[in-house]
Amino acid sequence: MKTEVLKTGEGNDELILKKASDIIKDGGLVAFPTETVYGLGANAYDAEACLNIFRAKGRPADNPLIVHIASFEDAEKIAYTNELYYKLAKKFMPGPLTVILPKKEVIPYSVTAGLDSVAVRCPVNPVAHKLIEYSGVPIAAPSANRSGRPSPTTAKYVFDDMDGIIPLIIDGGECDIGVESTVVKITDDSVTMLRPGAVTCEMLLSVCKNVTVADAVINELKDGEKPLSPGMKYKHYAPKANLFLVNDKKIDFISLALEKQRSENCAIMCFDEEIPRLENKNLLPVGKKDDIREQTRRLFILLRRADELKVDTVYAHLPSVEDKSLAMYNRMIRACAHHVLGGV
Ligand code: TXA
Ligand code: MG
Prior knowledge:
The relative contact order is 0.15. The model has no long low-confidence stretch (mean pLDDT 96). By secondary structure, the protein is an alpha/beta fold. It contains 11 helices and 15 strands. The protein has helices at residues 13-25, 47-57, 75-78, 83-92, 109-112, 126-135, 155-162, 201-205, 253-263, 292-308, 326-335; strands at residues 4-7, 30-32, 39-43, 66-68, 97-102, 117-121, 139-140, 168-171, 182-186, 191-195, 211-213, 242-246, 266-269, 313-317, 340-341. An 11-stranded mixed sheet has the order 1-8-2-3-7-4-6-5-9-10-11, with helices on both faces. The chain binds threonylcarbamoyladenylate (TXA) and magnesium ion.
């Protein structure tokens, strides 16, 4: 199959969106930009089309998909909502929040991987929004990477993974946020964070007093432990090289990095301020030391760049586990399979 890449913002958006929505309506797959990462979408009512998402990604059949809607009220069409859903939706939708709700019958089990719940998200990116609207159906979409790889935040990285596998990639430029949405499970009066993202605990606490973070967000699952979200149990986001995180409270990062630069074919993910102190070879600057937002935004791009450099190892700072860097901590600790030099 030939994979077409069409760029938005050059006067052809209506044509591109018409073409893309026709593919979705016909049961095909389209990769599209969102504010978080690129998604690989299909008609969420079409069980067969959604099975093709799993095939295209090589995704384990027990890992459910997120269903994207054009406005938060559309959740009624696919799920049983409650008051807390509307409180969260009014504050954070459209935007990078996904809420797990009991599913209605219209959503096939191929979307939810056999679960009776469905993940609902209303993206704010205008291309994503219009694609859902023009398609006239909710769009089931995981991140548009091959399973296990870092989520793509540019159309080029979607192409690297999906060339020849899907008919169309909509190129909407680099994603603003750069990590996937915050995923929460809710009851009538409590929120459990299953995956951290740009909507933080502090932000959720402004809506609900009872917010907890699932243990698997921070710690490794114990042998035989059943995760709250199937996605928690898979190795994720991994570059081809071996990634090591360095606890810079216990180990001097610069000394270690200089030693590795001399002895290994490695890349170093360093703060911008550290560049002059390191050898100018395979450096992957993550942003300024205090700029968590920029570091988070660049994370997946840099993991992909490490692959392009064809290095054997990558060394990076262990992020802090505090609320505002929790999304980055969670992705990095999983990308390195919990290999932290100096310990956590
Ligand atoms: O930002 C995002 O959320 C992106 C863009 C494309 O919207 N999508 C995304 O989808 O990251 P995906 O499939 O890569 O991640 C979905 C996560 C998985 O960890 C999955 O296990 C979890 O959400 N999930 C989906 N449905 C669930 C359900 N019913 N119960 C528990 N977890 C669920
Ligand atoms: Mg994913």
